[in-house]
Amino acid sequence: MSTEPIDEQAVVDALNRIYEAELSGVVRYTHYSLMIIGPHRIPLVDFMKAQAAESLMHAQQVGEILTGFGGHPSTSIATIEESNQHGLQQILRESLEHELQAVQLYRSLLDIVADRSIFLEEFARSQVATEEEHQLELRKMLRDYA
Question: What is the DSSP letter of 115?
Fold first, then answer.
């Protein structure tokens, strides 16, 4: 364990970026669940709704930690690029990109807290693992389009 104190402002800033990204996931996945059409609609709508619910849960977890550090949760969400392309392949690609960005945000938090906070390090690691699992699922879904 490092003897160097944790940079609480850096933690708060990283958590706010994650919080905004997770909230954007709620909007993104809800939007996608409404836009999916075609023969695979039912299972994919359920998948997207589950992703939206999980993003909200992650935002709430991050918000609790953020306020525990004395931070103030943002009232903004991360930018959502709207391509207006709602084919299944495009939706899955955009979802994969969102998950890749989420991994980077959680890895940034991990870099800040590594060897300084077991709780935050374990939280960041578990979130990276979860987001990486989502990436694998999306990559499998995209194989039909390769």
Answer: T
User: How many whole angstroms from its chain centre is CA 12?
Assistant: 17
In angstroms, the CA 80 to CA 27 distance is 8
Q: In whole angstroms, give the CA distance from residue 93 to residue 143.
A: 11
Nearest of 109, 123, 105, 103 to residue 6 by alpha carbon:
109
Domains of the chain by residue range: 8-75+84-145
The model's pLDDT over 74-114, given as tens digits with 9 standing for 90+, comes to 999 999 988 888 999 999 999 999 999 999 999 999 999 99
The Cα–Cα gap between 33 and 37 comes to 9
H-helix or E-strand containing 69? none
Residues 64 and 54: their CA atoms lie apart, in Å, by: 15
Distance CA 131, CA 133 (A): 5
- Our CA angle for 92, 59, 81, nearest 5°, is 40
Residues in the chain, pLDDT under 50 = none
pTM of the model: 0.94
Contact assessment for residue 36 and residue 44, using Cβ atoms and an 8 Å cutoff: yes
What is the CATH code for 8-75+84-145? 1.20.1260.10
